Amino acid sequence: MSSQNTAEGLKTVIGVPALSLSIICGCIGAGIFALPAIVGISLGAFAIFSYIFCGIMFAAILFCYAEIGSRVTSSGGSYAYVEAAFGKFPGYIINWLYSFGWGVIGSAALMNVLADSLAVIFPFFTTWGGRALLFFGLIAFMIIINVIGAKQSIGLVKIITIFKLLPLAGIILFGFRFIQPSNLHWEHLPTFQTFSSASLVLFFAFAGFETSLGASGEIKNPGRTIPMSILIAGIVVLAVYLLIQTVTQGILGEKMILFKEAPLAAVAEKIIGPIGATLLLICAAVSCFGNVTLDVLCTPRSLFAGANDGLFPKFLGVVHPKFSTPYYAVILYGILIFIFSISGGFKQLAMMASAIVLVIYLAVALATIKMRTKKSHEKTFKAPGGIIIPLIAVASIVWLLTSLGKWEILSTLIFIGIICIFYFATKWIRLKFNPPALMK
């Protein structure tokens, strides 16, 4: 199918392969290079079953996104879904939560992880000036390629995703012969509290898939492409996580605690020698770069969609006359990531990110239930099991919310309160300076 311009002025250029790889890129980030130790130390060999449990919970959320994504095909992803179901005010809250509380803060954190990885090889990036120069160059490149076109940006994301999967595939394929079967046995089951804490960590390892759906207005045949891509990506991500955990646990066993900062680097060194650790550091840096590039592609579409709905300044809804991209939204978003990357201000805000993404998922799951009451004249995907799947998603999210710390919940509630003040203040200002025409 050739690309064509939508009613929003954007080009439909994203098909099943591109969307599947971008969803995989969004899920499998730099965290995977430390994740096996985080859950392995607390759960031991039983960690493998924790992945399966979290995979089932997350599958329910994926089905919700697949269903509502096949019905609501405008740009904005999570924002567009909530706005279509509940209206502008809830949509405004979700847009702010997603774009700033989850997107900008998360990308700023990833940029610093990228710099930390490179600093091991190039000490220059331990300095503020070196990091600032690195951030400026990389983010400027991301902005340029995303302004030029979604096709070019998604092409880069595809290449990076393949690049990051290759070393993981190598660890899986060549690591099995180093596994000690005794390291995969467990003597007793973990306590419920330990299992819950590990499950919370693992749940967030699957987060990030929704980023790609921010560009839903540029997806070809979304009714088919979104559900199929989510299914393919979900299977691949779960398989990679399970196999990586099995190999890492099988090789390191009780020694996992000695390599808690970089277990995969220790496994790579075991397989191919000292160069393995260096390759994994480079791979971690590239992985971070890929995730931020994907974010700069997709999240500005939420700002673009909000501007088109009259919630954000109009200039964010302007499309480039030549490249058909929301270039002002992309530029502004990239600048915000750069500011937070160099300031370190994200560190104080990052603790509420886990609560924010759960609120976003909860809103989308509830929106899926609400949209089922609205008739659709087009053929759309429906999650199997009727209302059961969305209810499982809601129950899982509520359970995880109760597992969060008081500060994470309180900071998120304060942030939502500030967003509400912004909404009603801007609404009042519009009415004051642009009053509706008096009825004659």
Structure overview:
The chain is an all-alpha fold. The chain has a single domain, classed as Amino acid/polyamine transporter I. Helix content is about 70%, strand content about 0%. The chain is built from 17 helices and no strands. α5 (about 90-120) packs across α13 (about 325-345) and α6 runs antiparallel to α13 (about 325-345). It is globular, with a radius of gyration of 22 Å. The mean pLDDT is about 85.
Task: Provide a concise account of the structure shown.
The protein is mainly alpha-helical. It has helices spanning 16-27, 35-43, 47-71, 78-86, 88-121, 128-148, 150-175, 192-206, 222-252, 263-272, 275-298, 300-308, 327-343, 346-349, 353-371, 388-402, 406-433. The longest helix has 34 residues, at 88-121.
What keyword list fits this structure?
single chain, Amino acid/polyamine transporter I, mainly alpha, 0% strand, 17 helices, 440 residues, globular
Topology, pairings included?
Elements: H1 16-27, H2 35-43, H3 47-71, H4 78-86, H5 88-121, H6 128-148, H7 150-175, H8 192-206, H9 222-252, H10 263-272, H11 275-298, H12 300-308, H13 327-343, H14 346-349, H15 353-371, H16 388-402, H17 406-433
Helix pairs in contact: 1-7, 1-9, 2-8, 2-9, 3-8, 3-9, 3-15, 3-16, 4-5, 4-15, 5-11, 5-12, 5-13, 5-15, 5-17, 6-11, 6-13, 7-9, 7-11, 9-10, 10-11, 12-13, 15-16
